[in-house]
Specification:
Blueprint lengths: L1 H24 L9 E9 L12 E11 L6 E3 L6 E4 L3 E6 L2 E5 L4 E3 L5 E3 L4 E5 L13 E2 L14 E9 L6 H13 L4 H9 L12 E8 L5 E12 L2 E8 L15 E7 L5 E6 L5 E4 L4 E4 L12 E3 L7 E3 L9 E4 L4 E3 L4 E7 L7 E6 L4 E6 L4 E7 L1 E3 L7 E4 L2 E3 L8 E3 L8 E4 L1 E3 L5 H33 L3
Parallel strand pairs: 11-21, 11-22
Antiparallel strand pairs: 1-2, 3-32, 4-31, 5-6, 5-9, 5-27, 6-29, 7-8, 9-10, 9-26, 11-23, 12-13, 13-14, 14-15, 15-16, 17-18, 18-21, 19-20, 24-25, 25-26, 27-30, 28-29
Length: about 475
C-alpha cells in the first residue's frame, strides 16, 4: 500500500511541477492566465464502509483551474494593440471556428480585416455601405482602406459680431456724401454710387471681412470671402466673392460680388436678410437662412472656377459642380454689439478627397478611421464575450479558449456595457503570473517530490528487511 501512496504522491508532485513550470514559461505571454493544480485525498472504500479509523490511499489531482484575475495593462505604440480592463474576451474566428482570447495583438491583413497574430479575424458589429453600425449583427471587422470620396459643401454655419460703433468705410462715406449733395438729397442714388466703390483689394471700401474654404463636387477647395460694409445705423451690406471672383461669372472683371442686406434690431440681434434681386441667392425670411444656388446652364448660381495661373489670371469653369441643392448659409445667430468684429464660430460640411491616415479605437470598441482631409469614419465596433463559468472554458493553446458545456453560452456585448470590461487601445494585458509565487511553489513541489520518493525508499527498505528474515 505504501508504494502506491508514494507513487500517487510522486505523480501529483510531478503534475504540480508541470503546472508551475508552465506558469513560469508563460510569465511573458500576453493575455496568459496562470493555472493552479488542485489535489484531493483518496480513501479506499469497503463493503461495510470506510470504518472508524480509515487509512488514506494517496492523493489524486482533482482539477487544474485557471485563474482569470486581471493582468497588468502595458501601454504600447501600436494603436491596434488592445487590452481588456475587466471582464470579457475578444471573439475571433478562424474560417468560422470561434474562439476567445485576452491576447490583444491585432493588426490588419492585406484585405483590411482586423486579425490577431495567428490570422484569426476579430469579431464585432460591422457597418453598412452608409457607415451605419449594424448592432446585433456579429461579423468580421474590416477597415476600408480606399480613399474617401470628396463631398461638396452644402451647409455653412457661422456666427459673427459686427461692431455697432464702427463708422462706414471712408471711401464709401465720401462717395455717399458727394452724390447725396450733387443729387439734391437722392439717398437711393447715393447708396448705389457708394456701393459701386467696393474693391476687395482696398480696405477703405469695406468695414470687416472673413473667409473660409468651400468645396465643389470634385473636392477642389475654393475661398469664399464675406465683406461687411456698414451703410447706416443697424444696417450692413454683406458682399460675397468666391476665389476673389463673382461666383456666377468667373470671367467677370472687375469682380462684382453678390450683395445681401443685413438689418439688426435695437438689441443687436439679426432681424432681416434681403438679397440684391440677382437670383443667385434665395433668402428664407422666417429662418434668415440664405441659399447660394448652384449655377447651371439654365439657372444663376455658383459655378466652380479655376485660374490659369497667369498674370493677370484668367478664370474659367473647372468642370466640377456645386452641391446641386446649393449651399445654405446660416448666420442667424450673428449679432451687432459694441465690440470688435469677431467670428465666434464657423463650420462647413464639405471636404476634399481623403486618404487613410490612421485608426483610433475608443473604450467602447468603436473603430474610427482618420483621413488626411480631417474627416473620420466609423469602421465597426468590437464586441466582447463573457461566460457564467469562465473556468469551464477549454484552453486550446495560442492564448485562446473555446466554449464548453461547463462554461455555458457566451454573453456578447460592447465593451463597458453590463458587466463587460472597458477596452484600452494602444495597450496589452500582461500575463497574470506572479513569478515570486511560482518560484516558491516550485520549491514546495520539489520538496513534495523528494518526500514522496523517500516514502517509497523507506517502504523498499522495510520490504527488504522482511525478505531477509531467515
Amino acid at each position: 500500500m505504501s508504494f502506491n501512496i508514494g507513487l500517487s504522491g510522486l505523480r501529483a508532485a510531478s503534475k504540480d511541477l508541470n503546472v508551475t513550470g508552465n506558469n513560469i514559461a508563460n510569465a511573458g505571454t500576453v493575455g496568459f492566465k496562470q493555472s493552479r493544480a488542485e489535489f484531493s485525498d483518496v480513501y479506499a472504500a469497503s463493503v461495510l464502509g470506510t470504518g472508524k479509523n480509515p487509512q488514506g490511499s494517496g492523493v489524486l489531482m482533482s482539477n487544474i483551474s485557471q485563474q482569470f484575475n486581471q493582468g497588468n495593462i502595458n501601454y504600447t505604440q501600436n494603436a491596434l494593440d488592445l487590452a481588456i480592463n475587466g471582464n470579457g474576451f475578444f471573439q475571433v474566428s478562424n474560417n468560422g471556428a470561434v474562439s476567445y482570447t485576452r491576447a490583444g495583438y491585432f493588426g490588419t491583413d492585406r484585405e483590411g480585416f482586423l486579425v490577431d497574430n495567428f490570422g484569426y479575424k476579430l469579431q464585432g458589429f460591422p457597418v453598412d455601405d452608409n457607415g451605419n453600425l449594424q448592432n446585433g449583427v456579429v461579423g468580421d471587422l474590416q477597415v476600408q482602406t480606399t480613399n474617401q470620396a470628396p463631398k461638396a459643401t452644402s451647409q455653412i454655419d457661422t456666427a459673427f459680431n459686427l461692431n455697432s460703433t464702427q463708422k462706414s468705410p471712408a471711401t464709401w462715406q465720401a462717395t455717399y456724401d458727394a452724390v447725396l449733395a450733387s443729387s439734391g438729397g437722392n439717398s437711393g442714388a447715393a447708396l448705389a454710387a457708394a456701393s459701386d466703390t467696393f474693391n476687395p483689394t482696398d480696405p477703405t471700401t469695406y468695414s470687416s471681412s472673413t473667409s473660409l474654404n468651400i468645396y465643389d463636387s470634385q473636392g477642389n477647395a475654393h475661398v469664399m470671402t464675406q465683406y461687411f460694409v456698414k451703410t447706416g445705423a443697424n444696417t450692413w451690406d454683406m458682399k460675397v466673392l468666391v476665389d476673389g471672383r463673382n461666383p456666377a461669372d468667373p470671367a467677370d472683371e472687375p469682380p462684382q460680388p453678390y450683395v445681401m442686406g443685413l438689418t439688426f434690431d435695437s438689441s443687436g440681434a439679426l432681424e432681416t436678410v434681403t438679397d440684391d434681386g440677382s437670383g443667385f441667392f434665395t433668402v428664407d425670411p422666417a429662418t434668415k437662412k440664405v441659399t447660394l444656388n448652384a449655377g447651371t446652364a439654365s439657372s444663376d448660381g455658383w459655378i466652380p472656377a479655376i485660374s490659369d495661373g497667369g498674370t493677370p489670371a484668367t478664370w474659367s469653369a473647372n468642370g466640377a459642380l456645386a452641391n446641386p441643392d446649393g449651399i445654405v448659409l446660416d448666420f442667424s445667430k450673428s449679432s451687432q454689439f459694441a465690440s470688435a468684429f469677431a467670428v465666434n464660430s464657423v463650420a462647413q460640411d464639405g471636404y476634399t478627397t481623403g486618404e487613410l491616415a490612421g485608426l483610433e479605437i475608443d473604450d467602447t470598441g468603436v473603430i474610427f478611421a482618420r483621413y488626411t482631409n480631417g474627416q473620420s469614419k466609423v469602421q465597426g465596433q468590437i464586441i466582447l464575450a463573457n461566460f457564467a463559468n469562465v473556468q469551464g472554458l477549454t484552453p486550446v493553446g495560442k492564448s485562446q479558449w473555446v466554449q464548453s458545456f461547463e462554461s455555458g453560452e457566451p454573453v456578447v456585448g460592447t465593451p463597458g456595457s453590463g458587466t463587460l470590461g472597458a477596452l484600452q487601445a494602444g495597450a496589452l494585458e500582461d500575463s497574470n503570473v506572479e513569478l515570486s509565487d511560482q518560484l516558491v511553489n516550485l520549491i514546495v513541489a520539489q520538496r513534495n517530490y523528494q518526500a514522496n520518493a523517500k516514502t517509497i525508499e523507506t517502504e523498499s527498505a522495510i520490504t527488504q528487511t522482511i525478505i531477509n528474515l531467515r
